[in-house]
Design a protein that fits this description.
The structure is a single chain. By secondary structure, this protein is mainly alpha-helical. It is built from 14 helices and three strands. α2 packs antiparallel against α11, α5 packs parallel to α7 and α12 runs antiparallel to α13. The longest helix is centred in the last third of the chain and has 34 residues.
Length: 408
């Protein structure tokens, strides 16, 4: 029976993608599966940041348009970073990888110096002296970590089936980076970086059983980090079935307001800018809970569109990490895939009360200069890889068939 099924499966003709004869995804399609969702998400963020942050800014006595102009300048810088990153060749990122990692690692450990600034229980910001400008180095470290894992595996020609080689050359630098992040008590970013590393190693095709070992080793570490902080513990317990308390109308929690926002949005939403929950009911309406405000204002249609857009983006990134012809590009792309995917799932999962709230922004949509610029940099790097895939020049060469002949 099994042999019959195998024979029938072999007889089914394979779909041919792209311009070659190989049954592989078209690199041009992969490129646009990444680029188009990125543009859509940035456009949505452009609108939602203004809508979700206006009330907070007014309550602080500021002009909302002046504050939004600052956000707009940050977004413009992020888009500029993305465009520059995607125009640089693969070899530039390969050569820059160790230096980017070292620079971002040094920045991360500055959070434990007098430059570190505490916010929301986490000391994950540093103040730039002289200009009173805050940056979150852990966001930049994501870019450095993704590049470094790809670089060290290729540069040292590591035996990817040798656990010791990977543990020493990848695991130790990863542990140092995570130590710097946890020094600022930022568990959310630490989890995203762990997911990033897992994605990079999966793209490097290390043995699958190692991930099981890593999970078993990581569980007690994560449990210790949760039990060390009463607020974290309460947030984790609150999403476990049977432990969550019913909403208390007299003293609702943030997650209650988030669910009310999503529920009141209905199918089409209450309209852009018309959210009620952002009127100081949701404390982090512009960052951690912006997905709830989006659902309230744009309804189920808006939230489904965002979820589908993220799904298409992750699909495009996954294609790149599986089929790119360059090993370094494939490994880095795997890391960025898990970075964006894990962060989006954690944020949206927290808003719908499936996952605990751990302070992770929604990529490209939430307010946050450091997060937005770092995400743009990471996506710009993978877009540069997609532009330089081996099939791109050949595929784009077909466009010459449709050009008007030049006059002689």
């Amino acid at each position: 029976m099994i042999e019959k099924l195998k024979t029938r499966a072999r007889s089914i003709p394979k779909l041919q993608f792209g311009t070659g004869s190989r049954a592989e995804p078209s690199p041009v399609t992969t490129y646009y599966l990444i680029l188009v969702p990125v543009i859509c998400l940035i456009a949505i963020g452009f609108v939602m940041v203004f809508s979700a942050s206006t009330v907070r800014v007014i309550s602080q006595g500021e002009n909302p348009y002046t504050a939004y102009l600052r956000n707009l300048l940050i977004m413009a810088f992020g888009v500029f970073t993305l465009v520059v990153a995607m125009r640089l060749p693969n070899r530039f990122w390969y050569r820059a990888a160790p230096w980017v990692f070292i620079a971002t690692l040094i920045l991360q450990f500055l959070v434990v110096t007098p430059l570190g600034v505490e916010s929301g229980g986490n000391t994950n910001w540093i103040m730039i002296p002289g200009i009173s400008f805050l940056i979150q180095p852990s966001e930049a470290l994501k870019v450095g970590m993704a590049l470094f894992i790809g670089w060290v595996i290729i540069r040292l020609n590591l035996d990817r089936t040798n656990f010791t080689h990977i543990a020493v050359n990848v695991g130790l630098p990863l542990a140092v980076g995570l130590g710097g992040i946890m020094a600022g008590h930022d568990l959310g970013t630490a989890l995203v970086v762990v997911a990033l590393a897992a994605g990079a190693l999966a793209a490097a095709r290390v043995p699958g059983k190692w991930f099981g070992i890593a999970v078993l080793a990581f569980i007690p570490v994560a449990a210790f980090a949760v039990f060390q902080n009463q607020s974290r513990l309460q947030r984790v317990i609150s999403v476990i079935p049977g432990f969550r308390q019913p909403p208390n109308p007299a003293a609702p929690e943030q997650i209650d307001h988030a669910l009310w926002a999503l529920g009141s949005g209905g199918l089409t939403g209450v309209g852009p800018g018309a959210s009620k929950e952002k009127w100081n009911y949701l404390a982090e309406a512009h960052t951690d809970f912006i997905f709830a405000i989006l659902g309230e204002e744009l309804g189920l249609i808006g939230t489904v569109f965002v979820v589908v857009t993220f799904a298409v983006l992750i699909y495009g990134l996954t294609r790149l990490s599986l089929y790119h012809s360059d090993d370094f590009s494939r490994i880095v792309s795997g890391g960025v895939t898990m970075w964006i995917g894990a962060q989006a799932i954690i944020n949206m999962g927290a808003v719908v009360a499936v996952l605990p709230v751990i302070g992770v922004p929604l990529p490209l949509i939430s307010t946050g200069g450091s997060a937005f610029v770092a995400t743009c940099a990471g996506l710009g790097i993978v877009l540069s890889f997609a532009r330089k895939d081996s099939g791109m020049e050949k595929a784009f060469g077909l466009r010459t068939l449709f050009r008007r002949p030049s006059k002689k």
